[in-house]
Amino acid sequence: MDKTEVIMLLRQAKTGHKKWVENAISLIEGLPLDKNQVPVNGTECMFGQWYYGEGQGLKSLKAFKEIEQYHDGLHRIYREIFILLFEEESKPSLLTRLFGISRKVTEEKKLAAHEKLQALKLQSRSIMKKVDELEEAILEMSPEQLSAFL
Description:
By secondary structure, this protein is mainly α.
């Protein structure tokens, strides 16, 4: 794989991350979106598939290593939001048991989800900063240096 291909895959992963964040925001804002379009698990999103797949050839680079903590943090925050908004009560109410009516998300939970959304956006910005650093490091490498990683 040459430098152009590595950069192209990295940029595709970056675009996938941005789309994931847009979908997460839409879902949190209550816009109609299938919650399966925003995977909770960090290895299932497009960025995570690249990071834990083809991207592993770059794992000895500092910027690459630093991305993981932010990516894990992003998915941890999103998991908390997802639980707030979508996890069913452990004890369904009488109405739910009788008529299959699920409860609406309370305003308190919506507010908590929106507060966590700010942390999610911050994590995303940190990921993008590290991805930009990684891209710069790759662009500065000679083809021989890059091939040593791949």
